[in-house]
Amino acid sequence: xxxxIVGLGYIGLPTATMFASHGVTVVGVxxxxxxxxxxxxxxxxxxxxxxxxxxxxxxxxxxxKAQLNPETCDYYIICVPTPFKEQPGIPDPDIxxxxxxxxxxxxxxxxxxxxxxxxxxxxxxxETVDQLLKEKxxxxxxxxxxxxxxxxxxQILKELINNDRVVGGMTPAGAAxxxxxxxxxxxxxxxxxxxxxxxMCKLVxxxxxxxxxxFANELSMICxxxxxxxxxxxxxxxxxxxxxxxxxxxxVGGHCIAVDPWFIxxxxxxxxxxxxxxxxxxxxxxxxxxxxxxxxxxxxVEKHDREPKIACLGLAFKPDIDDLRESPALHITAALVxxxxxxxxxxxxxxxxxxxxxxxxxxxxxGADIFVALVKHSAFKGxxxxxxxxxxxxxxxxx
Length: 399
Hints:
4-stranded parallel beta sheet
């Protein structure tokens, strides 16, 4: 069995590695020569627990190689980004990377080939890919399916194996063929359905989480105005046997929760009112944090007759990872820098960032006047800040 995976990022590389470690010969395709060279040296170009060792073993076994272009294989998996186009109003999903990947593999398709899209996509994308392949002159019979990932950064390898998977085919045979591939290493349930249902399932999962986070974030803003400790309040409310309020943060980030709901809203804005409002609440939370920091700076200047040094603790979109995609913490920190504040950015999981001055935690502890806790990294827990102002927006329990 041979497999070509197009896109070797946060999902593509771990997926390629898992298949290779379970006996499948995998060709990984990416547009980044640097990523290709790194992988072929037996190293991972992204940070994820246990991935570096897994890549090393897969490459050494001869079952994983990376290159710029696809080749003829039995199976193809598309794992490329699906961002949205920034524009006024509702963002428009951009599936151009998916279509480009489909176009690249089209010349290599042989009779009975199986194509699986893993990229999170608007409903109808699998059908669009099917139409594209036919327009590009593909005449052989192939199977086409959609199988979204549902993994947590920091636990990707474990969750790829253990989590249930939803596989939606353009035909029942397509779903069955795709499911057969994933059974190579997935120990969770593999449920077969239609392509449209699988596409919608991925979007609904993350929209559900976004709506629930929006409730927590909105609650945190209300509590701040009422001078109520939101963390204590949520802990008390969750003692109710049928209440499970999530924890608020400085917004919502990552390529999934912060993006996927827009795919539903863009397709049906008339009916997706709650989903749309949740997105607006979570996006606004970062701006609300900036407003709070502005007020703290003004009070500091009035009291000390000088500008404070501000330490922003965390840039990643969630704790203990290096992923900055759609990160509200990064947005907040960059906005504060843009206001010409003296900002020290502390992110223990990132070595450098072109637009920001990254400093070690120890340096920030020595020089900062105001600490803005944005990400609940383990490295930030249990710190003694003395009598300096700590603005806790992630539940570190510092303020």
